[in-house]
């Protein structure tokens, strides 16, 4: 907040002046159908008459609406109070992630995998394939890059292929990182993204020693999961569920989480997928649409679906989740929780896809098996599709060079949502992000056109749905959403309190 | 309720004194070490009941500052040394306490009470605001002498870990004195957490940031009042134009100095209509705040004069209070309700209710005597009157109270 | 190709930028051609490929609503010109992002 010397002074007789805000019609039946938002994330629902009156200096001072507008920094009184310190503090809280280097570091230790998933986001190599593993020299260099980031909390995530097929490399990297960290003293979390099919007691013991978390894929009940994830023995579901059990026995219930990949097949059965997560005792579920990467685009005609279908699925799934949570089962949808944090608090979730400036490269780095460095998992998947335009360099380049690469410049130039066509007028931009890699993949251009962007349609659809729920949902719906916000039990959130 | 002053008969007092009351056992075992800071024998006032005095009359030759006999003297006694006896209320002064006395005055003020969590360093009667509900109306006087008295008082306290308050008036008006006192608290009373009540306006001056950071007191917190989410309403309550802007900037400067901050809101007809909106403002703009205290009004001082403008029956703001408390609680911001008897809040708010009224001004009225909740209730301020009594004050039956107890878990 | 919606707008009431942003915002519904004549902006809209069934009146009112909303946004942006940039600069000082 230092170094700005603007005094807000009235230029005419109006008792109040406007502060920057955006508005959007939610197209619901509610009388207050227009959503006003400020750059700092404050919001208010108003009607047409209120919006006009506000904009043309016709709100009567002293009314509660006038005070709401003042308190949420939509207007200010130049002769009375300078709201800039508050607004700057809010803005800074929301963009706090900019003050740190990349915190998420993905190590693609191998491309080998025992699955032959049609939608696979990464091209894979057969089990016995060679030349698809991260070399020792590259792994060592990647660890140097990791510690060049100034982030106090670092996540080291192992990806594949199936990373447990290259467990010796995983072990090496973990041990190097742990040893370096005796001096570095960062807060480090290790995660292995795996099918859990290749777990051994040795791996579990090692995971226990280093508090390694497991992230697995569970697409739903056995028929759906096994149809989505073919293996020669056709028992992917059974082996994954067995793996979940073993991890929990060795490392505790919360040592494993799961992600869902939604194929067009999945969209027909939101309740069955959710029931499976309840059955397996998970407390969160991640309902993400299929990404346009890896093999997914090539088999698009069979597996892909218009984002509108996903939104219908999401609405059904969320309705069902709200119901079972009210019945006493705690199961949150993780992307919803992130959006709620963006909406309901002055902070940003910091989630890579929901950042502006974009999180690719600035929040996350991917060290690919071949020694190249990518700004995101999606960017490296483009490579496997034959696009090689989005690499930042090799692991042998220092982090400062990687982040100054031409690719990063392009991504950042098209990665500030507030400055993008369409986004710059959108009232949801404070809660959303920019995803130039996604737009590059879908539209062949890092900016793309919002009206034809599935990223935009998805986030707009979800955010509008949540804004309507937060306004119109009954007390018990509010209670569930608030319980997800701070991961509290539903019964602990006895009353929703002021809706804000 | 135990008052903080009473009258004694006082013999041979030539100058104002601050004295630590100490028993014979303590004197023998610890001497001046019973005090947290640097002291001498003549800072001590030996606790000498008549019985002990009669049995061991030679005790009065001990090299202490004087003697205190907590009852009437059975036989006249005069050895030309300072002697306090025949208290009007024998419970007020007890061993371990620090008292202040002045020549020509029989009043004995307890400045520190051993074991109490309500001890206070009173900084000044001066203030730069004039809040409509001020319980201690400010006086425009030079009372810098409080600084010296408090520095002395710190030396004479016990070293234990009770909370210590610093209040006024507006303590920051004596900036150097306050910083000196805080520094001394840190060195002499490292076990005590210190809570300063300030309107925060002067922290607008960013030079406080370095001063507080340099102080580095690990257990220091600030209670800062905020009465509205907008300048007009806040400035009206504190009767000072520009106060809202100053306090808000002050809060940011305190945050920059990594200080622990509590927001305090006195509940009145003026502050309750937008109480939920105020909570929203605090959470959105001041998320670093560690605690929000929603406080029933104390019907004393200027509040009495502004009865019409301030009084609202707590029953009539229950809904606003509930909306506010749960808004903050659900967002992870700790919140408490102070000074409201349990019978005036719904059971689902009892988890936030605290027994907040300092022991020396806490009162339970006739209705409370048969109430099942009395041991868990804040009760009333001693200044309580019928005019400020809610229509909802009632006895809670054992059954009714169990609902509160269940809710509080 | 079915109907066009044709509007002649007073350029004192609607800025070129408001008209252009309307065309952008409705790109999945109508294809809009923009022309400039003296103190008028002309706007010719045809239904987008996927929206050939859209009734002309509905397209008309949709375009007008967007034009008016963007004109209002113009007004708000004029009234708050420069503040957004000052805010971002003040808030983000020291993070290495220059905007």
Automatic annotation (TrEMBL), chain A:
The entry's keywords: Iron, Iron-sulfur, Metal-binding, S-adenosyl-L-methionine
Keyword Kinase tagged: no
Cofactor names: [4Fe-4S] cluster
CDD domains: Radical_SAM (cd01335)
Classification via Pfam families: Radical_SAM
Domain Radical SAM core: 99-327
GO molecular function, one term: oxidoreductase activity
Coiled coil: none
Residue segments, region Disordered: 217-238
Protein name in the entry: His-Xaa-Ser system radical SAM maturase HxsB
Taxonomic lineage of the native organism: Bacteria, Pseudomonadati, Pseudomonadota, Gammaproteobacteria, Pseudomonadales
TrEMBL record, chain B:
Cofactor names: [4Fe-4S] cluster
Keyword Calcium tagged: no
Name the record gives this protein: His-Xaa-Ser system radical SAM maturase HxsC
The organism of origin for this protein: Pseudomonas soli
GO MF, any single term: catalytic activity
NCBIfam families assigned: rSAM_pair_HxsC
Keywords annotated in UniProt: Iron, Iron-sulfur, Metal-binding, S-adenosyl-L-methionine
PANTHER family for the chain: PQQA PEPTIDE CYCLASE, RADICAL SAM DOMAIN PROTEIN
Keyword check for DNA damage: no
UniProtKB/TrEMBL annotation, chain C:
InterPro entries, A to Z: HxsD
Organism superkingdom: Bacteria
Matching NCBIfam families: chp_LLNDYxLRE (TIGR03976)
Record's protein name: His-Xaa-Ser system protein HxsD
Taxonomic source organism: Pseudomonas soli
